[in-house]
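Subject: Sanity check before I submit

Could someone independently write out the structure tokens for this chain? I want to compare against mine line by line before I put it in a report. The sequence has 261 residues.
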Amino acid sequence: MTVLLLFGPTAVGKTRAAAYVAEKTGAEVISADARTIFRDLSVGADRPPPEILARVPHHLVGVLPPEARYDAAQFRKDCERIVQEIFERGKRAIIVGGSTLYIRALTRGLFPGPSADPKIRAELSRLSAEELRAELLKVDPESARKIHPRDRVRMIRALEVFRLTGRPISAQWGKEEPFPWPLVKVGLRCSREELYRRIEERVERMFAQGLVEEAKKLWEMKLPEDAPILRTIGYRELFGYFRGEYDLSEAKRLILRHTKD
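---
Independent answer below. Compare away.
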């Protein structure tokens, strides 16, 4: 049996498209979003609205506390388990996302590499994108050529693997384990002008729904600086506002810019 994989940029309409298809086919939806999985953070993570969650069964939405650590390897494991359970119920499965590494974990597979090391990740997270790329060019130039210069997550993972194993992550490419079921991949897109309009509309909606207040609660939790949720666009820009580095209008401008990047 095949699995439908819906993907595309932020604000392109993946959530509602997945819900529409699920209702028409009696399917269940699995979120492949690295932020939607956290609970109590519905605004910043742009969780599917309550009316959609009430109509369509969703998985991996709001199930982890903000301090939890969760990566692509754990997502892949959970996704395989949930798809199997959905099939056993006689239903179809739709995966919608989301996070680049999560999608890659399905479409390209994962190699059996080392688990995440919080200490190394915390150290690497303090480096700028330029510093990460410079270090990666020294130890794994092939990865550096293929990973986008602004993709901090993948650069950090590549450097983490090298530090833990002494071998470049590129040496493991080609050893990935494929997803157990065929994926029907459907990418959603629209014009850049329309996408930017939707992003601007979405950011305004998030502010109206209490993004600042939600980010403040997260800020006051004093989570470890390398906690994944703290890197979420929308929260991290507001943290600068809370620290007094700039005003709220500048925080909103940064959120818009980073979302459009």
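---
OP: Matches mine. For the report I'm noting this point. The mean pLDDT is 92.
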